Amino acid sequence: MAVRHRLIESPAGEVWAVLADGTRYGDWVVGTSRSRPADGEWPQVGSSIRYTIRFGPWSVAGRTVVRRCEAPGVLELEVDSGWLGTARIALEVRPWGENALVTIDEHPLRGPAGKLHNTAVDALIQLRHCSMLARLADTVEKASHSTHEAA
Predict the structure, then answer these.
(1) 94: helix, coil or strand?
(2) Would you say 112 and 84 are in contact if contact means Cβ atoms under 8 Å apart?
């Protein structure tokens, strides 16, 4: 089971604002080089974004669909990375004093990732989550600074 959490030193609402912006997906999701809206209005249930993952000279196009959204605290996504398979990613944002406690829970669902899922894969996912939560914190901080500067 690949579950990781991080305290982000920003209000929960500012963290949610980044998660609720489908165009920011590539800013904090590790491996994603680009994202753009596809269907519906992100993050409504059923809405989706398209993204590109790069592995050196290779790239994989994918799609992420919102399966559950309870703003401003729960966002569950199904990530479809083509031949790599699909995964469930659940994000929870909780107020923690003046800050936000963010938990990410990821599990492969279908395809090779689901069939090959084991503790070694979970260890790699944990490393990815550490980086992803750090990038989310940086993205939130940058968004917060630009909002405060504009005010």
Answers:
(1) strand
(2) yes
Question: Token pair for residue 65?
Answer: 């669909």
The pTM score is 0.86
Measured CA to CA, the distance from residue 136 to residue 101 in angstroms comes to 12
Q: Round to whole Å and give the CA distance between 27 and 7.
A: 18
Residue 8 near residue 99, CB atoms below 8 Å: yes
pLDDT at position 65? 96
Joined tokens for residue 47: 């809405």
CA separation, residue 51 to residues 36, 79, 91, 125 (Å): 6, 10, 18, 19
According to the model, what pLDDT value does residue 145 have?
Answer: 66
Give CA–CA dist 96/128, Å, rounded. 24
For residue 12, which amino acid is it?
A
Whole-number Å distance between alpha carbons of 14 and 30: 20
